[in-house]
Structures are given as C-alpha cells and as structure tokens.
Amino acid sequence: MKQTLSVIAAAACFAFSLPSLAQKTASQGIDEYRAMLQDGNPADLFEAKGEGLWKQKRGPKNASLEQCDLGKGPGVYKGVFVELPKYFADTGRVQDLESRLLTCMETLQGLNAAEIAKTSFGKGEQVNMTALATWIAAESKGMKFNLSQAHQNEKTFYEVGKRLFFQRGGPHDFSCASCHAEDGKRIRLQDLPNLTKNPGDGIGFAAWPAYRVSNGQMWGMQQRLNDCYRQQRFPYPGFASDATIALGVYLGVNSKGSASIAPAIKR
Predict the structure, then answer these.
(1) Which residue in 64, 85, 189, 219 could disulfide with 96, CB within 3.0 to 4.6 Å?
(2) Bridge partners of 202?
(3) How many CA atoms lie within 13 A of 38 on its CB side?
(4) In which element (H, E) is residue 21 found?
C-alpha cells in the first residue's frame, strides 16, 4: 500500500511539472531552430550588398559613403553600431545608425534624405538603407553595447524614450511595456524579454537588424520599432523620427554590456 501511494505521489508530481517542462522544451526548440538557420542566414546577402553600397559612387554627387562619420571619425565603421544612437555636433541631433546614414547619403552623395525617409520600407532607397545598416551592424558583432549619456541631449532622449516605452494608448490601451516590462512573459511560443533592464546578450535591442523567416524580409531597428507601434494600433511615427530614436536610446542604454548578435535571424 505504501509503495502504491509513493508511485501515485510521484506520478502526480510529474504531471504537475509537465506544463513547465513543455514550456522549456518549446523555448529550447525555438533556440535550436534559430541556431540551425543561422548557418545559412540570408542576412549574409544583405551584408555583402551593404558593403558594396558603402564603397559605390552614387547619387548626384557621384560619391561613396567611405567618408561618412558614424561617430568614430570619417570612414570608421567597426564598433560604431554598439555606440548608437548618440549625439552628433554637426547636425545638433541625437541620431541612430539609420538616421545618421541618411545624413551621409544627403551630404556626401546628394541624395534627398526627406524623400528616402518618406519611402515605404522595402522599396527604393529603403532597400539600400537596410543593406547598409545590416553590414555596419555586422561589423560590431560580438561587441558590447556602450551608449553614451555624456551629452544633455542624450540624457533627454533617454528620458523621453522611457516615457514613450510606458505610454499607453490606442484602441487596446497598449504600450511597449505591456509586453516588455516583466520577466517571464510569453506570447504563443515566443519569449518576451524584459527591456526595462539589460536582457542579456543578443536579446531585444542587441538582435536587430534581423532577417525574419516568416515574411522573408530583412528588418532594421527603425522598421522593428515602427512595427511595434503598428501592433499597438498606433500610426507609424515615421522613419528616423525623434520618437523611434528616443526609444532606441532607452533600449540601448538599458542593454549596456550586452553583446550584439546582429544581424540575427527571427521567426
């Protein structure tokens, strides 16, 4: 009788543990799936295109981007990604990678930055922008994020980004924090990282740009943040807007010390 009760008790404990085991297995399965795809990550093609575009003479001025200053001096691209967004004295603005590339494309090549910013994702110069951002991000792969908060504008953008992160609104009264402000949250089989603190290497801010297998598209951080607004049923804030850059500052500063795995691969 005692033996039978012991067996029943053991079986009950196992049954109660099944949900947590299933969740762990699902999460591990997704990680394994990504690892298998990583060897053939289509982002490699965007990287190659981006490197070519950096060196190619284009635009009304028939110039390359090889003298573009991304924060470490003209032509330096290694290590810049993990320090952006930051304040640039020549524009008097806090800029992320994509908005800074817009500046260089206009000043060095004579392209129309305002027109590029208005172009839909995946069309025209936006395709080239994504390729450039993918290549430059790849040149900082494995490096740790270390965004500056030395300039007052950088501090202001952090505080604005924080407020935007927690701002609720829209028909569902959602905010960024609705999904990304607590530990252990999931949607379907997808883990939702807590982005109010350092989420760890290659998670959240440290994973974009990324190739999305589900739609066969390469997404930069600007598109990722704009799509977050879409999911909240907000209108797009616009490419390279102060709102998206401020959110980038908030997320980037919170990710200090995390290693970048961009360009990553996503479901």
Answers:
(1) 85
(2) none
(3) 12
(4) helix 2-38
* pLDDT tens digit sequence for 146-196: 999 999 999 999 999 999 999 998 888 889 999 998 888 877 667 889 999
Q: Name the nearest CA neighbour of 248 among 117, 95, 72.
A: 95
Which residue in 68, 104, 176, 228 is the catalytic one? 228
d(C-alpha 108, C-alpha 121), whole Å:
23
pTM of the model as a whole: 0.86
Q: How far apart are CA 259 and CA 148, in angstroms?
A: 16
Enumerate residues 6+ apart whose C-beta is below 8 A from 98.
129, 133, 220, 221, 222, 239, 240
Q: Which of 262, 260, 254, 229 is nearest to 243 (CA)?
A: 229
For the question of residue 228 being annotated catalytic, the response is yes
Q: Is 229 exposed, middle or buried (0-12, 13-18, 19+ CB in 10 A)?
A: buried
Instruction: Please count the other Cβ atoms lying within 10 Å of the Cβ belonging to residue 161.
Output: 25
* Coil, helix or strand at residue 259: strand
Query: What is the Cα–Cα distance from 197 to 62, expressed in whole angstroms?
Result: 44
The DSSP code for 122 is: T
* 12: pLDDT strictly greater than 90: no
CA distance linking residue 31 with residue 262, whole number of Å: 16
What are the beta bridge partners of residue 192? 185
In the chain, domain spans: 1-39, 42-266
From CA 222, how far away is CA 201, in angstroms rounded? 20
Predicted local confidence at residue 34, as pLDDT: 57
